[in-house]
């Protein structure tokens, strides 16, 4: 009996100590739900739909509150005003990259997405400059996207209007565009290596959005001791990196310093220029991580948006018909759509924007972190504290977008049918860490979707009213359900 009492008292002391440590470490962090020892607030969050949980908590604790995922505090920022203040007004102070344990084990905090400090600033600056030099936002890259759109149409025609799952083919098109910038080549849509890479991308995106991966993010040590799908992610990334390494080796053997062909050549030239700089951030390891970042991010986000967009257009046939009517009127059937057309196509432009707003691809953004001790809304956020910025709360704001859960291009049209911009439209985030490839992604989405609608009638295989557009996962990103459709040539 004495032993039982001693054990109970000892356990109680440990729990109290854990609570005290958590509460004492909060300092002047924003208020939030009381965390449990060790596990924090994990039981108060639906790991299948984290953004919904954050919205519910914001109704209790306001637009800025603190959550503990495990023993680590995270400041949640909810609503347009708070998100803009954090990422734009205090952009430098919150420009750090927050913890993402699975990815950290893959890239060792290298690359342009998950690095920090000087490394991140130099690699981001270099990547932006190089992408612009290779045409991002210019006519030259538009020509590449148009050519790929034509290849996509020809490939879709081969289905002869029969039902097909568009997952792989809609991944091939944006992947080929980014490949042309990074590797100076494109794949045939039936290439086995290409399809294998597409499979790895899709599988990883699904796994990273699984409940298990959200638990692993809160308790990283689990990945060291337990089997699980995280090992498949590691294996898939290793395969992708091995492919990138082969490309880098080929480029090293054929490099012409005076005539760079693509992003890899430019990086290798930069490495030679800085070979005597012991502190240089331009290393083979950084090159592999940066190219892998661009390769994966430049493919998966755009392809998922296209796939989700076609599903929405299948369900909302009246919206599709109206966009096709505008395309027929402005472009016709005998030339390819171009970016200049967009200003004469307000409805189609609104449809593309509404797809991005509605699907809310990365609902809670990629985590940020404080780079210094910073005062934010009368709270003191210590250096290194992770920041979760709810993009859902911005893209689905019911004052800016009435009935935000309804797919309605009217959210981006004024009373005269003209396109209406919105400061709340931030699917690529905002501030210092906003997506490097935003300009390219916007171009791809408009040109690919417009070209598909110009050339095909989208025929569902079931009654449109029975089409379910609910994501099958909604954690790090929104994963659309699998579906089939018929591309009927017009």
Give structural attributes:
single chain; 490 residues; alpha+beta; Cytochrome p450; five-stranded mixed β-sheet; 17 helices; globular; disordered N terminus
Topology:
Layout lengths: L1 H23 L25 H12 L2 E6 L2 E7 L1 H10 L6 E2 L3 H7 L9 H17 L5 H19 L9 H16 L9 H17 L2 H8 L3 H4 L4 H25 L8 H11 L10 H32 L1 H14 L15 H14 L8 E2 L4 E3 L2 E3 L4 E5 L1 H4 L42 H18 E5 L12 E2 L3 E2 L5 E5 L1
Parallel strand pairs: 2-7
Antiparallel strand pairs: 1-2, 3-4, 4-7, 5-6, 8-11, 9-10
Structure, described:
The protein is an alpha+beta fold. It has a single domain, classed as Cytochrome P450 (Cytochrome p450). It has 17 helices and eleven strands. It has helices at residues 2-24, 50-61, 80-89, 101-107, 117-133, 139-157, 167-182, 192-208, 211-218, 222-225, 230-254, 263-273, 284-315, 317-330, 346-359, 392-395, 438-455; strands at 64-69, 72-78, 96-97, 368-369, 374-376, 379-381, 386-390, 456-460, 473-474, 478-479, 485-489. The strands form four sheets. The protein has a five-stranded mixed sheet. Strand 5 and strand 6 form a beta hairpin. Helix 7 packs antiparallel against helix 13. The longest helix has 32 residues, at 284-315. The termini are far apart. Residues 3-26 have low confidence and may be disordered. Heme binds at residue 435. Belongs to the cytochrome P450 family. Keywords: Endoplasmic reticulum, Heme, Iron, Membrane, Metal-binding, Microsome, Monooxygenase, Oxidoreductase, Signal. This is unspecific monooxygenase. Residues 1-25 form the signal peptide.
